[in-house]
Amino acid sequence: MTASYEGVGKLGFGAMRLPLTDPDDVTAIDIEQVKAMVDEFIARGGTYVDTAFVYHNGCSEPALRQALVERYPREAFTLATKCLAWACASKEEAQACLPTSLERLGVDYIDFYLLHNVGGARTAKFDEYDMWNYVADAKERGLVRHIGFSIHDGADVLDELLTAHPNMDFVQLQVNYLDWDDPVTESARCMEVAAKHGVPVIVMEPVRGGRLANLPERGAAVLAEADPEASQASWAYRFCLDLPGVLTVLAGASSLEQMQDNMRTFQTHQPLNEQERAAIDGAIAALRSVDLIPCTNCGYCVKDCPEGVKIPVALNLLNLERQTEDRAFAKGLYSWQAAEGPASKCVQCATCEAMCPQSIPIIDRLAEAVEHFEG
Ligand code: SF4
Ligand code: SF4
């Protein structure tokens, strides 16, 4: 791999949930506040700014043009954006994403271009639309500096994809302290796979969609006791910042105040010491002290399911709901992670229960998933 990563700041600015002037309209971006956030970010040494074709219904990229591109020299920042080919109706539509992103952002090249949310049945769309060759060609033509993909699937799928596409310069993974040894997300194993293939990692979801910045009391108390001054988000970012192989940790910010907190963490960052690691372990234990479904994601149950139900996904999200006490958050993830095999497709044949080494009453748990996530 010959890609150069010089100048990429360790804490990235994720422009997925920018501040709004109208909370009911995701396109009503508060551009003056975004400018102030960008100024704070750049002034404190940040460079990596991450957006996507679809963020804010297509308005995140133009907002960054106004707040960043038109106000700073091109070499002052590193831009990442993404294509969701699986959401496109045709190859032409998928391959039109890059020129549209370039135009919206007002730049003539993208530093990091991602095929976004590869995995599951979505991978077939990237294949069908020839997106792997398309991005390689875009890199050849100088429209893109580095090509990679983001993925939420586990380590085996990541390994297969990096083996099939050895020209990828980087990969974007879901990594955080709660998912580190999670049997479905497998953050730790995914990091090992990336290292094996020699690709650096952009960390997404370091605060697990905001859940690790707004912990249930039993987890919050552990961290507050260890350091009453530190924000919950800062613990989550610090966990990721020193992991080997990490290029950038994406930090979403929806206000200037959040950006200031993020940048404080970045500027004052010290590696976690032994006591601090113990505090995070204590918070994880507290979050998991609720009754969790003992699914190990071994996958035996899904092999012969006649309906293709995404059993481990449903069980994992029930566990996430129990740990974070946030059903709406888990439901949002379920809406796309289980879309190919929702729990409601279960016909109660019990084949899966006979296969489960953990003796989990899967049919009952799937009924719970239907009630919690499909209502
Ligand atoms: S009980 Fe439901 S989930 Fe289990 S194998 Fe049968 S259809 Fe699939
Ligand atoms: S067989 Fe049991 S433990 Fe294995 S993935 Fe299925 S539900 Fe989880």
Assign a percent range to the helix content. Answer: 40-55%
What is the N-to-C succession of helices and strands?
Answer: EHEHEHHEHHEHEHEHHEHHHHHH
Query: In order across it, which strands form the biggest sheet?
Result: 1-2-3-4-5-6-7-8
The helix tally amounts to 16
Structural class: alpha/beta
| CATH C-level of the largest domain | Alpha Beta
- What is the CATH homologous superfamily assignment of the largest domain? NADP-dependent oxidoreductase domain
Nearest-integer average pLDDT: 93
**N→C terminal distance:** 47 Å
**CATH overall fold name of the largest domain:** TIM Barrel
Beta-strand segment tally: 8
Word description of this protein:
The protein is an alpha/beta fold. It has two domains: 271 residues, TIM Barrel, CATH 3.20.20.100; 74 residues, no CATH class. The protein contains 16 helices and eight strands. It has an eight-stranded parallel barrel, surrounded by six helices. Helix 8 links the parallel strand 6 and strand 7. The radius of gyration is 21 Å and the shape is globular. The termini are far apart. The chain binds iron/sulfur cluster (2 copies). The site of one iron/sulfur cluster has 15 residues, from helix 15 and helix 16. GO terms for molecular function: iron-sulfur cluster binding; metal ion binding. Pfam families: Aldo_ket_red (PF00248), Fer4_9 (PF13187).
Features:
TIM Barrel, iron, single chain, NAD(P)_OxRdtase_dom_sf, 375 residues, NADP_OxRdtase_dom, 8 strands, 43% helix, globular, binds iron/sulfur cluster
Compact summary:
This protein is an alpha/beta fold. The chain has two domains: 11-281, TIM Barrel; 300-373, no CATH class.
